[in-house]
Design brief:
single chain; 360 residues; alpha/beta; 10-stranded mixed β-sheet; two-stranded parallel ribbon; 14 strands; binds S-adenosyl-L-homocysteine; binds iron/sulfur cluster
Length: 360
Protein backbone atom coordinates (compact mmCIF):
# COMPACT_ATOMS: atom_id res chain seq x y z
CA UNK A 1 0.00 0.00 0.00
CA UNK A 2 1.78 3.10 -1.18
CA UNK A 3 1.54 6.04 -3.48
CA UNK A 4 -2.24 6.17 -3.53
CA UNK A 5 -3.37 9.53 -4.87
CA UNK A 6 -4.80 11.50 -1.97
CA UNK A 7 -7.21 13.60 -4.04
CA UNK A 8 -8.71 10.46 -5.58
CA UNK A 9 -9.53 8.82 -2.21
CA UNK A 10 -13.04 8.59 -0.85
CA UNK A 11 -13.64 9.15 2.86
CA UNK A 12 -14.11 5.40 3.34
CA UNK A 13 -10.81 4.64 1.63
CA UNK A 14 -9.01 7.14 3.87
CA UNK A 15 -10.63 5.58 6.94
CA UNK A 16 -9.41 2.18 5.84
CA UNK A 17 -5.88 3.47 5.25
CA UNK A 18 -5.79 5.22 8.63
CA UNK A 19 -6.95 2.07 10.35
CA UNK A 20 -4.26 0.00 8.62
CA UNK A 21 -1.48 2.36 9.68
CA UNK A 22 -2.69 2.76 13.23
CA UNK A 23 -4.23 6.24 13.04
CA UNK A 24 -7.62 7.20 14.43
CA UNK A 25 -10.70 7.26 12.23
CA UNK A 26 -11.27 10.97 12.86
CA UNK A 27 -7.88 11.73 11.27
CA UNK A 28 -9.24 10.33 8.01
CA UNK A 29 -12.37 12.46 8.29
CA UNK A 30 -10.30 15.59 8.98
CA UNK A 31 -7.97 14.81 6.09
CA UNK A 32 -10.87 14.26 3.68
CA UNK A 33 -12.31 17.67 4.61
CA UNK A 34 -9.01 19.50 4.19
CA UNK A 35 -8.52 17.98 0.78
CA UNK A 36 -12.05 17.85 -0.65
CA UNK A 37 -13.79 20.76 1.08
CA UNK A 38 -11.12 23.29 1.99
CA UNK A 39 -9.30 22.52 -1.28
CA UNK A 40 -5.77 22.80 0.15
CA UNK A 41 -2.88 22.23 -2.23
CA UNK A 42 -0.23 20.60 -0.02
CA UNK A 43 0.42 18.81 3.27
CA UNK A 44 1.82 22.08 4.66
CA UNK A 45 -1.57 23.76 4.33
CA UNK A 46 -3.22 21.20 6.61
CA UNK A 47 -3.34 22.81 10.04
CA UNK A 48 -4.84 20.52 12.65
CA UNK A 49 -3.14 17.25 11.81
CA UNK A 50 0.21 17.04 13.63
CA UNK A 51 3.48 16.75 11.72
CA UNK A 52 4.16 13.17 12.79
CA UNK A 53 0.73 11.95 11.65
CA UNK A 54 1.20 13.86 8.40
CA UNK A 55 4.54 12.17 7.87
CA UNK A 56 3.03 8.74 8.45
CA UNK A 57 0.19 9.53 6.05
CA UNK A 58 2.44 10.99 3.36
CA UNK A 59 4.39 7.72 3.16
CA UNK A 60 1.23 6.11 1.71
CA UNK A 61 -0.68 8.97 0.16
CA UNK A 62 0.61 11.01 -2.72
CA UNK A 63 -0.56 14.64 -2.74
CA UNK A 64 -0.34 16.21 -6.18
CA UNK A 65 -2.00 19.55 -6.89
CA UNK A 66 -2.21 20.73 -10.49
CA UNK A 67 0.27 23.35 -11.54
CA UNK A 68 -1.33 26.44 -13.07
CA UNK A 69 0.53 27.20 -16.28
CA UNK A 70 -1.83 29.87 -17.56
CA UNK A 71 -5.00 31.66 -16.60
CA UNK A 72 -7.00 33.76 -19.02
CA UNK A 73 -9.92 35.97 -18.08
CA UNK A 74 -12.58 36.83 -20.59
CA UNK A 75 -14.55 40.08 -20.59
CA UNK A 76 -17.70 38.06 -19.91
CA UNK A 77 -16.32 36.55 -16.71
CA UNK A 78 -15.21 33.20 -18.10
CA UNK A 79 -11.86 32.07 -16.75
CA UNK A 80 -9.80 29.50 -18.51
CA UNK A 81 -6.99 27.56 -16.87
CA UNK A 82 -4.21 25.51 -18.37
CA UNK A 83 -2.96 23.00 -15.79
CA UNK A 84 0.17 20.87 -15.91
CA UNK A 85 -0.02 17.29 -14.65
CA UNK A 86 2.77 15.50 -12.87
CA UNK A 87 4.02 13.81 -16.06
CA UNK A 88 4.21 17.14 -17.88
CA UNK A 89 0.98 16.76 -19.89
CA UNK A 90 -1.36 19.74 -19.91
CA UNK A 91 -5.14 19.99 -19.69
CA UNK A 92 -7.69 22.77 -19.87
CA UNK A 93 -10.43 23.67 -17.48
CA UNK A 94 -12.94 26.52 -17.62
CA UNK A 95 -14.91 28.42 -14.97
CA UNK A 96 -18.06 29.94 -16.44
CA UNK A 97 -20.55 32.51 -15.17
CA UNK A 98 -18.25 33.99 -12.58
CA UNK A 99 -18.41 37.77 -12.98
CA UNK A 100 -21.97 37.71 -14.29
CA UNK A 101 -23.42 36.22 -11.16
CA UNK A 102 -23.03 38.80 -8.45
CA UNK A 103 -25.96 36.95 -6.93
CA UNK A 104 -23.55 34.02 -6.49
CA UNK A 105 -26.13 31.51 -7.52
CA UNK A 106 -24.30 29.54 -10.18
CA UNK A 107 -20.63 28.85 -10.83
CA UNK A 108 -20.01 26.15 -13.38
CA UNK A 109 -16.71 24.38 -13.97
CA UNK A 110 -16.08 22.58 -17.23
CA UNK A 111 -13.59 19.76 -16.57
CA UNK A 112 -11.39 17.60 -18.78
CA UNK A 113 -11.46 13.82 -18.49
CA UNK A 114 -8.61 12.74 -20.79
CA UNK A 115 -5.37 14.15 -22.17
CA UNK A 116 -6.31 14.47 -25.83
CA UNK A 117 -9.18 12.38 -27.15
CA UNK A 118 -9.39 9.14 -29.15
CA UNK A 119 -12.64 10.12 -30.91
CA UNK A 120 -11.06 12.68 -33.24
CA UNK A 121 -14.01 14.84 -34.25
CA UNK A 122 -13.38 16.90 -37.36
CA UNK A 123 -14.05 20.31 -35.77
CA UNK A 124 -12.37 19.79 -32.39
CA UNK A 125 -8.97 21.08 -31.33
CA UNK A 126 -8.60 18.28 -28.76
CA UNK A 127 -9.44 15.64 -31.37
CA UNK A 128 -6.75 16.98 -33.69
CA UNK A 129 -4.09 16.33 -31.07
CA UNK A 130 -4.80 12.60 -30.78
CA UNK A 131 -5.11 10.61 -27.54
CA UNK A 132 -2.48 10.59 -24.80
CA UNK A 133 -4.08 9.06 -21.72
CA UNK A 134 -7.01 8.95 -19.32
CA UNK A 135 -7.04 11.29 -16.36
CA UNK A 136 -7.03 9.80 -12.88
CA UNK A 137 -9.77 10.54 -10.31
CA UNK A 138 -7.43 12.92 -8.48
CA UNK A 139 -6.68 14.79 -11.69
CA UNK A 140 -10.36 15.15 -12.58
CA UNK A 141 -11.47 16.25 -9.11
CA UNK A 142 -8.24 18.26 -8.79
CA UNK A 143 -9.35 20.66 -11.53
CA UNK A 144 -12.39 21.66 -9.48
CA UNK A 145 -10.38 21.80 -6.26
CA UNK A 146 -7.61 23.95 -7.70
CA UNK A 147 -10.00 26.40 -9.34
CA UNK A 148 -11.83 26.62 -6.01
CA UNK A 149 -8.51 27.27 -4.29
CA UNK A 150 -7.45 30.02 -6.68
CA UNK A 151 -10.78 31.84 -6.75
CA UNK A 152 -11.06 31.68 -2.95
CA UNK A 153 -7.83 33.67 -2.71
CA UNK A 154 -9.89 36.63 -4.01
CA UNK A 155 -13.32 35.54 -2.82
CA UNK A 156 -13.13 33.34 0.32
CA UNK A 157 -16.81 32.30 0.12
CA UNK A 158 -16.50 30.95 -3.42
CA UNK A 159 -18.24 27.62 -4.12
CA UNK A 160 -18.51 25.73 -7.38
CA UNK A 161 -22.18 24.85 -7.84
CA UNK A 162 -22.27 23.01 -11.20
CA UNK A 163 -19.99 20.71 -13.14
CA UNK A 164 -20.03 19.90 -16.82
CA UNK A 165 -17.81 17.13 -18.17
CA UNK A 166 -17.27 18.98 -21.41
CA UNK A 167 -13.57 19.77 -21.40
CA UNK A 168 -10.91 17.77 -23.20
CA UNK A 169 -11.63 14.11 -23.79
CA UNK A 170 -14.58 11.73 -23.99
CA UNK A 171 -15.87 11.15 -20.43
CA UNK A 172 -17.64 7.88 -21.21
CA UNK A 173 -14.36 6.38 -22.46
CA UNK A 174 -12.93 7.03 -18.98
CA UNK A 175 -16.10 5.86 -17.29
CA UNK A 176 -14.96 4.47 -13.93
CA UNK A 177 -12.78 7.47 -13.08
CA UNK A 178 -15.52 9.91 -14.07
CA UNK A 179 -18.15 8.14 -11.94
CA UNK A 180 -15.85 8.03 -8.92
CA UNK A 181 -15.03 11.72 -9.43
CA UNK A 182 -18.74 12.52 -9.43
CA UNK A 183 -19.16 10.67 -6.15
CA UNK A 184 -16.28 12.62 -4.59
CA UNK A 185 -17.57 15.98 -5.82
CA UNK A 186 -21.01 15.10 -4.49
CA UNK A 187 -19.81 14.09 -0.99
CA UNK A 188 -21.39 16.14 1.82
CA UNK A 189 -18.01 16.48 3.55
CA UNK A 190 -16.45 17.54 0.24
CA UNK A 191 -17.63 20.20 -2.21
CA UNK A 192 -21.19 18.84 -1.86
CA UNK A 193 -22.20 19.50 -5.48
CA UNK A 194 -25.64 18.03 -6.21
CA UNK A 195 -25.80 15.06 -8.60
CA UNK A 196 -28.42 16.93 -10.59
CA UNK A 197 -26.00 19.80 -11.03
CA UNK A 198 -23.50 17.64 -12.87
CA UNK A 199 -23.74 16.89 -16.59
CA UNK A 200 -21.76 14.49 -18.74
CA UNK A 201 -21.33 15.38 -22.40
CA UNK A 202 -20.67 12.48 -24.76
CA UNK A 203 -20.02 12.11 -28.45
CA UNK A 204 -22.17 8.97 -28.30
CA UNK A 205 -20.69 5.90 -26.57
CA UNK A 206 -24.07 4.13 -26.69
CA UNK A 207 -23.50 1.23 -24.22
CA UNK A 208 -22.06 3.58 -21.61
CA UNK A 209 -25.09 5.87 -21.88
CA UNK A 210 -27.24 2.93 -20.77
CA UNK A 211 -24.78 2.07 -18.01
CA UNK A 212 -24.79 5.67 -16.79
CA UNK A 213 -28.58 5.67 -16.54
CA UNK A 214 -28.43 2.52 -14.41
CA UNK A 215 -25.47 3.56 -12.23
CA UNK A 216 -26.16 7.27 -11.78
CA UNK A 217 -29.67 8.20 -12.89
CA UNK A 218 -29.46 11.68 -11.37
CA UNK A 219 -26.53 12.87 -13.45
CA UNK A 220 -27.48 14.95 -16.49
CA UNK A 221 -26.63 13.93 -20.03
CA UNK A 222 -25.70 15.99 -23.07
CA UNK A 223 -25.24 14.17 -26.38
CA UNK A 224 -23.07 15.80 -29.02
CA UNK A 225 -25.28 14.90 -31.94
CA UNK A 226 -24.17 17.45 -34.55
CA UNK A 227 -25.88 15.60 -37.40
CA UNK A 228 -29.01 13.51 -37.84
CA UNK A 229 -27.87 11.38 -40.77
CA UNK A 230 -25.13 8.77 -40.58
CA UNK A 231 -23.32 9.97 -43.70
CA UNK A 232 -22.89 13.44 -42.27
CA UNK A 233 -22.24 12.29 -38.71
CA UNK A 234 -19.59 9.79 -39.86
CA UNK A 235 -17.63 12.61 -41.41
CA UNK A 236 -17.81 14.76 -38.26
CA UNK A 237 -17.52 12.11 -35.53
CA UNK A 238 -15.59 9.01 -36.66
CA UNK A 239 -16.96 7.01 -33.70
CA UNK A 240 -20.40 7.16 -35.34
CA UNK A 241 -19.28 4.19 -37.46
CA UNK A 242 -18.98 2.14 -34.28
CA UNK A 243 -22.21 3.42 -32.69
CA UNK A 244 -24.39 4.67 -35.53
CA UNK A 245 -27.45 6.84 -34.99
CA UNK A 246 -29.97 4.00 -34.55
CA UNK A 247 -27.89 2.51 -31.70
CA UNK A 248 -27.26 5.91 -30.19
CA UNK A 249 -30.91 6.93 -30.24
CA UNK A 250 -31.94 3.59 -28.78
CA UNK A 251 -29.53 4.17 -25.90
CA UNK A 252 -30.99 7.66 -25.45
CA UNK A 253 -34.51 6.18 -25.26
CA UNK A 254 -33.38 3.74 -22.56
CA UNK A 255 -31.67 6.59 -20.68
CA UNK A 256 -34.92 8.59 -20.66
CA UNK A 257 -37.04 5.59 -19.67
CA UNK A 258 -34.80 4.91 -16.67
CA UNK A 259 -34.07 8.48 -15.56
CA UNK A 260 -37.09 10.43 -16.84
CA UNK A 261 -34.60 13.16 -17.63
CA UNK A 262 -34.47 15.31 -20.70
CA UNK A 263 -31.29 14.95 -22.74
CA UNK A 264 -29.59 18.01 -24.19
CA UNK A 265 -28.62 17.40 -27.80
CA UNK A 266 -25.69 19.59 -28.82
CA UNK A 267 -25.56 20.57 -32.46
CA UNK A 268 -22.51 22.50 -33.65
CA UNK A 269 -23.47 24.38 -36.78
CA UNK A 270 -20.96 24.95 -39.53
CA UNK A 271 -21.37 26.88 -42.75
CA UNK A 272 -21.76 23.38 -44.28
CA UNK A 273 -24.35 21.65 -42.10
CA UNK A 274 -26.63 24.55 -41.11
CA UNK A 275 -28.99 23.62 -43.96
CA UNK A 276 -32.74 23.16 -44.06
CA UNK A 277 -32.59 19.46 -44.96
CA UNK A 278 -30.29 18.80 -41.99
CA UNK A 279 -32.70 20.61 -39.68
CA UNK A 280 -35.58 18.54 -41.06
CA UNK A 281 -33.66 15.30 -40.61
CA UNK A 282 -32.93 16.34 -37.02
CA UNK A 283 -36.60 17.10 -36.37
CA UNK A 284 -37.53 13.61 -37.65
CA UNK A 285 -34.84 11.93 -35.54
CA UNK A 286 -35.91 13.63 -32.32
CA UNK A 287 -39.66 13.35 -32.81
CA UNK A 288 -40.11 10.67 -30.18
CA UNK A 289 -37.22 11.57 -27.92
CA UNK A 290 -37.55 13.68 -24.77
CA UNK A 291 -34.89 16.26 -25.32
CA UNK A 292 -33.75 19.77 -25.91
CA UNK A 293 -31.58 20.95 -28.79
CA UNK A 294 -28.76 23.38 -28.14
CA UNK A 295 -27.41 25.02 -31.29
CA UNK A 296 -23.77 26.14 -31.11
CA UNK A 297 -22.08 28.03 -33.91
CA UNK A 298 -18.86 26.07 -34.46
CA UNK A 299 -15.76 27.65 -33.04
CA UNK A 300 -13.32 27.84 -35.94
CA UNK A 301 -10.15 25.93 -35.06
CA UNK A 302 -7.08 26.32 -37.25
CA UNK A 303 -6.52 23.12 -39.20
CA UNK A 304 -10.17 22.00 -39.28
CA UNK A 305 -11.38 24.18 -42.14
CA UNK A 306 -14.71 24.65 -40.34
CA UNK A 307 -16.47 27.99 -40.55
CA UNK A 308 -19.36 29.49 -38.65
CA UNK A 309 -22.69 29.97 -40.35
CA UNK A 310 -24.18 33.46 -40.26
CA UNK A 311 -26.80 34.31 -37.66
CA UNK A 312 -29.65 34.20 -40.18
CA UNK A 313 -28.85 30.56 -41.04
CA UNK A 314 -28.83 29.62 -37.36
CA UNK A 315 -32.22 31.30 -36.86
CA UNK A 316 -33.72 29.51 -39.86
CA UNK A 317 -32.34 26.18 -38.57
CA UNK A 318 -33.89 26.82 -35.14
CA UNK A 319 -37.22 27.73 -36.72
CA UNK A 320 -37.50 24.38 -38.51
CA UNK A 321 -37.04 22.60 -35.17
CA UNK A 322 -39.45 24.86 -33.32
CA UNK A 323 -42.12 24.32 -35.92
CA UNK A 324 -41.71 20.57 -35.43
CA UNK A 325 -42.42 21.10 -31.72
CA UNK A 326 -38.83 20.57 -30.55
CA UNK A 327 -37.45 22.63 -27.69
CA UNK A 328 -34.42 24.56 -28.96
CA UNK A 329 -31.98 27.18 -27.74
CA UNK A 330 -28.96 28.71 -29.26
CA UNK A 331 -25.95 28.80 -26.97
CA UNK A 332 -24.42 32.18 -26.53
CA UNK A 333 -20.73 31.64 -26.98
CA UNK A 334 -18.70 32.41 -23.90
CA UNK A 335 -15.07 33.23 -23.66
CA UNK A 336 -14.41 33.26 -27.39
CA UNK A 337 -11.94 36.10 -26.81
CA UNK A 338 -9.84 33.70 -24.71
CA UNK A 339 -10.12 30.61 -26.91
CA UNK A 340 -12.47 28.86 -24.51
CA UNK A 341 -13.40 26.13 -27.00
CA UNK A 342 -12.20 22.72 -26.01
CA UNK A 343 -8.49 22.16 -26.65
CA UNK A 344 -7.76 25.54 -28.15
CA UNK A 345 -5.68 27.05 -25.36
CA UNK A 346 -3.47 24.00 -25.07
CA UNK A 347 -2.82 24.02 -28.83
CA UNK A 348 -2.01 27.69 -28.80
CA UNK A 349 0.37 27.23 -25.86
CA UNK A 350 2.10 24.22 -27.36
CA UNK A 351 2.37 26.05 -30.68
CA UNK A 352 4.21 28.85 -28.93
CA UNK A 353 6.52 26.37 -27.22
CA UNK A 354 7.36 24.75 -30.53
CA UNK A 355 7.93 28.08 -32.25
CA UNK A 356 11.60 28.51 -33.12
CA UNK A 357 13.08 31.25 -30.97
CA UNK A 358 13.68 34.19 -33.26
CA UNK A 359 15.94 37.17 -32.83
CA UNK A 360 15.00 39.25 -29.80
N1 LIG B 1 -16.10 14.53 -25.73
C1 LIG B 1 -17.31 15.03 -25.25
C2 LIG B 1 -17.14 16.20 -24.29
C3 LIG B 1 -16.07 17.19 -24.62
S1 LIG B 1 -16.36 18.16 -26.05
C4 LIG B 1 -18.25 15.41 -26.39
O1 LIG B 1 -17.80 15.42 -27.53
O2 LIG B 1 -19.40 15.64 -26.11
C5 LIG B 1 -17.59 19.28 -25.48
C6 LIG B 1 -18.47 19.88 -26.53
O3 LIG B 1 -17.72 20.80 -27.34
C7 LIG B 1 -19.03 18.85 -27.51
O4 LIG B 1 -20.40 19.09 -27.71
C8 LIG B 1 -18.23 19.12 -28.75
O5 LIG B 1 -18.89 18.66 -29.87
C9 LIG B 1 -18.05 20.61 -28.68
N2 LIG B 1 -16.97 21.15 -29.52
C10 LIG B 1 -15.73 20.69 -29.70
N3 LIG B 1 -15.04 21.48 -30.56
C11 LIG B 1 -15.88 22.46 -30.92
C12 LIG B 1 -15.78 23.58 -31.78
N4 LIG B 1 -14.67 23.84 -32.44
N5 LIG B 1 -16.87 24.38 -31.91
C13 LIG B 1 -18.02 24.14 -31.24
N6 LIG B 1 -18.18 23.10 -30.40
C14 LIG B 1 -17.13 22.26 -30.26
FE1 LIG C 1 -13.27 14.16 -28.34
FE2 LIG C 1 -15.48 15.57 -27.74
FE3 LIG C 1 -13.45 16.68 -29.13
FE4 LIG C 1 -14.96 14.81 -30.26
S1 LIG C 1 -15.63 16.84 -29.56
S2 LIG C 1 -12.73 14.92 -30.34
S3 LIG C 1 -15.37 13.47 -28.55
S4 LIG C 1 -13.38 15.98 -27.03
Amino acid sequence: MENIELRGCSEDELIEICQKIGLKRFRAIQLFQWVQQKAVRSWDDIKNIGKSDQQTLSAYLHFYALEKVREQRSKDGTRKYLFRLEDGETIECVLMDYARTKSRDRHTVCVSTQVGCPVGCAFCATGLEGFRRNLSIGEIVGQVLDITHYVRQEDPEFQVTNIVFMGMGEPLLNYDQVIKSIQLLNHTQGLNIGMRRMTISTSGVAPKIVQLAKDNPQVGLAVSLHAARDVVRNSLIPMNRRYPLDQLMEACQVYTQITHRRITFEVALTAENARREEAEALARLLKRQLGHVNLIPVNPVVGTGMERPDLEKIKRFAKVLEEAGISVSSREERGTDIEAACGQLRRQWEGELNEPIGPI
